[in-house]
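Ticket closed. Logging final result for Biogenesis AIM24 protein.
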Amino acid sequence: MRIVYDNEPAGYGGQAVTFEVHEGEKLHVLHPAQIIAFKGPSGSRTDKLMNMKGMYRKKKLIRADFMGACQFVASMPPSITLKPIKLTHGSDLLYDFRHLFFYTEGVRMESRLLSMKNMMITRDAIKMKFSGDGEIGILTQGQVLELPLEPDDPLYVEAGCVIAYPENAKLELSVYGNHLASQHMKYQWKITGHGSVLIQSGGGSRELERDLDNNDGIVKRFLREAIPFGGVFIK
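Final structure:
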């Protein structure tokens, strides 16, 4: 399979992505409503009802299966980026199933019930572990970075930016820095373990955008920053 990005990702008009499915290949697409063009034999596409687990996790009823040789174009909304990930032997990354856009034949999916503690942190009960020989496509907001983990040196990541983490990782809700820093940041995941974590750059704060568009005076901006919950009460 070949994926072609027809224009820059995360642009104002969204992103068009062309999938070229080769002879003998099979691709499963979980958001078929995003397909805007198709070329190939009509019988190359077969839509199916998802199983109950898929319906619940994706809030979708239908998936589309494509058999090569054919090609189609999928439209990604503004700010959404499609990240293909080639599965490697021994990978133990856990993903949110809602981020999954496609997977190829040969990919196996296993549900992982999280511990009560991790349920509270992630606000989810189940994550998905992918294995096998194949490729998956993950929907993210902005650029995707892969950051290494260490068992004794924690990595702090804003909670809304994490898209996948190793099954062996230890997660804690935390903040860092001095009192003023910890008071004005969103909750972080304090992560230790082996392997790496995937984060998305577009999941963070919109404060910079607000600051660039904001014409407030220096006194109001100081009070908003210096007073606890000032951003809530001082408009």
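Residues 183 and 228 are 7 Å apart (CA to CA). No further action required.
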